[in-house]
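This section describes the prediction task in plain terms. A model, or a person checking by hand, is given the sequence of a single protein chain and must write out its three-dimensional structure as a string of tokens. No templates, partner chains or ligands are provided. The sample shown here is typical of the held-out split.
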Amino acid sequence: MKLARRLTALATVVFSTVGTTGSALATAFESSEVERADFIAIAAPIGQTNGYQLLLVEQIADTRPCWTERGTNPTAVEPLLLDFDFTGICGRATDSNGYSIRMGDRDLGMQYSLRVVQRGSELVLIGLPFGLNRNLPQLEIGRTRGLTSGFTRIYLDPGWRLTRRTYQGRTLGHIYLTHDLTLAEFTQLETPSQPATATTTPEVPVDATLTLDEAEDPDITIEFGETPTVPEAVSDEELLDETMLEETEPDDASVVPPLQPREAFRNPPSPLPELVSPER
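The expected answer:
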């Protein structure tokens, strides 16, 4: 029993330390701009499944092309680096070890993972919150602008770009999907305030032969599918007599029916090899 408690306490300390260290590193990491023409974001099929994953490819040297493209909206991609030893020629990233999200100068790798999902007639690159951050909003980062049967180029949405992670002045191989806005600013921008919904009262059809005064008479009752009926006209003398009768107290109060209150209206693992960041 005592051993179990000690192990539990040790695990708590370890996870707390890991969380604190990860947060500190996320703050310490910086980024530097890259040559955008040297990179491509690709939606890569996962084995024999219907799923896709993000693949980033970098052209490091001009010895051989690392990929070719065909067509527009969508753009089919052939990753040529899979056909030769690309060491020193191409760089690639296939998972969170090689890429993550950065917003407002802050690394969000401990809060978001990158996923490629199909939405309608295109594939969308999204930032998906995980762990204790599942209440955060999803982020749409890019899209393929159509569907193909293989590797497809992902076009980043306006405001998003690729940058490279740096730490204490040293350039690292890790690539960021970067946006200059903070997460809060981006969420507010992507979620416009909802306009007030106007409430309308359903119109009740009134027979065309009725006058305006008759149509507004509360004594007229119209049932669905029936013709409106108008009460017979009452003379001023008869109306006065009825009013006097209503104001006269009956001799026996027991004959007055009790008042009835009106009811309220209720309206899989990656098939690609691990990333090896070549030294420049």
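For orientation: The CA atoms of residues 1 and 7 lie 10 Å apart.
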